[in-house]
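User: Good morning. I'm curious how magnesium ion would be positioned relative to this chain. Could you predict the structure with it bound?
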Amino acid sequence: MKLHQDVCKVLYTEKQLQQRVAELGAQITRDYQGEEVLMVCTLRGACIFYCDLIRHIDLDIKLDFIATSSYGNDTKSSGEVRLTKDLSSPISGKNVIIVEDIIDSGLTLKYLKRLFEARDAKSVRICSLLDKPEGRQTDIEGDYIGFTIPNAFVVGYGLDYAERYRNLPDVCVLDPRIYAK
Ligand code: IMP
Ligand code: MG
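Assistant: Good morning! Here's the predicted structure, ligand included:
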């Protein structure tokens, strides 16, 4: 793929991603036996992970979508989280799993977790494909994590830099020369 020219390393291949996503789906299925779950996709970064994950969950689930913004076109969080698209339905009394692409500072998930708790969800858990613990500025932790990665800026499998590279099938480290420009 031509987009691969802009990356310095493939971190996880399509095949490795598929295997781990299936494991996460099986784990969620075991943990929520007999329960209904609302799977909330954080747009847009988690969309590919989300679509793969939900097909590995053998439970009565419902889907909803939310969007926040904190990065603009930068590789660092602005520190301020804004809701740009809200859920379609109330979540009071529901088990919610927030599906995220990556936890970095933790600010986005802290904001969403608080918001959902304030709306009286029965439970709120976090499922993130990637975790970058070195970037953390909050006490947020994921309940289901695909892979823990070092502090590099990654793209592909839904993750972007300035809205590009989401369609790379693998998770890759972006060449720093791209954002130094
Ligand atoms: P946080 O609020 O700093 O935890 O950032 C969460 C959001 O920042 C994620 O949902 C991603 O959209 C974005 N993000 C953080 N690190 C990366 C990265 O390495 N590549 C692409 N997006 C990232
Ligand atoms: Mg993003």
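The chain has a mean pLDDT of 95. The chain has one domain: 14-152.
Let me know if you'd like a different ligand tried.
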